[in-house]
Design a protein that fits this description.
The chain has 21 helices and no strands. The longest helix has about 35 residues, at about 485-520. Helix 7 (about 180-185) packs across helix 8 (about 190-220), helix 8 (about 190-220) packs antiparallel against helix 10 and helix 19 packs antiparallel against helix 21. It has helices spanning about 25-50, 50-70, 75-110, 120-130, 135-145, 150-175, 180-185, 190-220, 235-240, 245-275, 280-300, 320-345, 350-365, 370-405, 410-425, 430-440, 445-470, 475-480, 485-520, 530-535, 540-569. With about 575 residues, the protein is mainly alpha-helical.
Length: about 575
């Protein structure tokens, strides 16, 4: 018999409403960041004395310099080949060394690390320090220790890249499936065995993509390392600018731009062929297994998939064309890396002679010598970076609206703007700084303009990619009922785009801050000149204070960006 007595029900809970209401913490964070960006931009303009009149005069001086540089005087084919080859070898050697060192560092810095407790904090400190100090700053230091030439440049690329690769790889390791690792530990495997046998194979595709992306960045960095004597094509550029041979400088800049653009296209093609999407690849693999399993059962084949080890598909057994190509690519990559190391001419006598220099540098760094002049230089770099990033984000948003397929008013215009942005991004920031210093003189005005241009191009790329990934249905629904273009954008696209706009804007500010540190080397304001001067005068205590200040500021910006993205995205 069924009991029909009414059951006492708890009072209905109040409707909690949407999980993220429009004017919640997200809206407050976005509004606060916007107000802060406007305030910092105004403070930057006041600090460097930027006004419409000074900007117009500066652009006029820059135009006169560009006219003096035309036509470009291209170096001879042999000279170009030698400089380009040295630049590429520096980038390959540094990236390879960084990849080898970053794998154990990433596993140690990850939250899943089960080894001694003191190793993880030490690894995270190493990751933060090496990531915070720019490549060119390391190059200045290593030139003092190891002398002029490509070895100092390759070590600078390697040390900075260790922090960048290890940071990204540690995130991938933390997100990996923990079940295989726990099973291996339950069988008595050590931490090294667990990492090599269960975790590394799963994160290897991601590691490949990270290293290829880092190689692309390092080639751009290697192109200007010669400015401080660390080898590569930058040596010729610095020589040409120092001797006021602007025609030759323009030719070298053209070579750098073409080199960077060609390698960017090559990097994109290689990543598409080597880095497979894990979800799509797993789906295809499972479908193939099911099809072959059904075919084997229907044909009564006793050698079907049941005879294979668990998790192995029939096409995984043996050496098919794809596996042969992957192994051949890995062998070729190893050979290129060894050749790049050998080409650096690691002289044992020179390396042994560097130990006294290294000892004097390390002992001279303690205690760090902070001063008011140093903190003002750091503040100048910070203002230049944040002001240029804010102005670049505003200009980049306009260019992104012209570039993105979903918002462009005219498709041919989108293609032209995309090509222009690729060319602008192909010129390193330091090259822009050198040109503006030659045209406008020393000071933060030149550094701000250089960062403004690079931040605009970078922000436009990020924003255009984000706009094309948004849901187009709200925009299409509004346009179908007669809404104007700006109305459809304001109501259908902008609310979706705000989180990506904020997150990518903070990322651009982070990159601009790193670059602002080294622009002072070219005389474009900031703390870079002070760092180069402290090393030249053997004031290593000041160098240590500069490195610590840079690391603290960069880490603070990274933390702010991470917290904002967590609440907005």
């Amino acid at each position: 018999m069924v009991d029909t007595t009414p059951v006492a029900r708890a009072p209905a809970a109040a409707d909690p409403g949407p999980l993220r209401p429009p004017w919640s913490a997200r809206a407050l964070i976005a509004t606060g960041l916007l107000v802060a960006a406007v305030a910092v931009t105004w403070l930057t303009f006041w600090w460097i004395g930027l006004s419409p009149a000074s900007l117009a005069a500066g652009l006029d001086d820059t135009a006169r310099l560009l006219r003096r540089m035309w036509p470009p005087d291209l170096p001879g084919a042999g000279d170009v080949a030698g400089m380009v080859a040295e630049t590429l070898l520096i980038a390959v050697a540094g990236t390879g060394l960084a990849a080898l060192a970053s794998v154990p560092l990433a596993f140690t810095a990850a939250r899943t690390h089960r080894g001694p407790r003191w190793l993880r904090p030490a690894a995270r400190v190493a990751v933060v320090l090496t990531r915070a100090v720019p490549t060119l700053a390391f190059a200045i230091l290593f030139v003092r220790i190891f002398g002029l030439g490509p070895p100092a440049g390759a070590l600078a690329v390697a040390v900075h890249s260790v922090g960048m690769i290890a940071k990204l790889l540690a995130d991938v390791v933390e997100e990996a499936d923990p079940v295989p690792a726990e099973a291996a530990r339950a069988c008595g495997a050590g931490e090294v065995q667990v990492a090599v046998s269960t975790v590394l194979p799963r994160v290897f595709p991601a590691l490949t993509g990270i290293v290829l992306h880092r190689l692309d960045i390092n080639i751009r960095a290697s192109a200007v390392l010669g400015v401080v004597g660390a080898g590569g094509i930058g040596v010729a550029l610095q020589t040409a600018l120092g001797s006021l041979n602007y025609h030759r400088a323009a030719g070298i800049i053209c070579v750098i731009v073409v080199l960077v653009l060609l390698l960017e296209l090559l990097s994109v093609a290689v990543r598409r062929r080597t880095v497979r999407h894990p979800v799509r690849h797993g789906t295809i693999r499972r479908r193939a297994v099911r099809r072959r399993s059904r075919a084997g059962r229907s044909a009564g084949d006793s050698t079907g998939t049941a005879a294979l080890p668990a998790g192995r598909a029939p096409h995984d057994v043996g050496w098919d064309r794809g596996r042969v190509l992957r192994v051949a690519g890995a062998v070729a990559t190893g050979m290129v890396f060894l050749v790049s190391l050998w080409s650096l001419n690691p002289d044992p006598a020179r390396l042994s002679g560097a130990w006294p220099n290294l000892r004097s540098v390390l002992t001279g760094m303690w205690p760090p010598a902070f001063s008011g002049h140093l903190l003002m230089a750091v503040l100048e770099s910070l203002l230049m970076a944040l002001g240029a990033a804010a102005a670049g984000a505003a200009c980049g948003l306009v260019l992104a609206l012209l570039t993105a397929v979903t918002t462009t008013p005219w498709r041919p215009l989108s293609a032209v703007v995309r090509v222009l942005l690729v060319v602008v991004r192909g010129v390193p920031d330091l090259v822009y700084a050198l040109l503006f210093v030659a045209a406008l003189g020393l000071g933060p005005f030149a550094g701000f303009l250089a960062l403004w241009i690079s931040s605009t191009a970078l922000a436009a790329k990020f924003f255009a990619d984000s706009l094309e990934q948004l849901d187009p249905l709200p925009h299409e629904a509004l346009t179908s009922v007669g809404a104007r273009r700006w109305q459809a954008f304001a109501a259908g696209i902008w609310p979706q785009f705000v989180p990506s706009f904020t997150g990518n804007g903070l990322f651009v500010a982070d990159l601009a801050l790193r670059e602002s540190v080294v622009l002072g080397i070219a005389g474009a304001g900031g703390v870079g000149y002070l760092m180069q001067e402290s090393i030249a005068t053997l004031r290593y205590d000041t160098t240590a204070a500069i490195v610590i200040a840079i690391a603290v500021v960069v880490y603070a910006i990274e933390t702010l960006a991470r917290v904002a993205r967590r609440h907005l995205l």
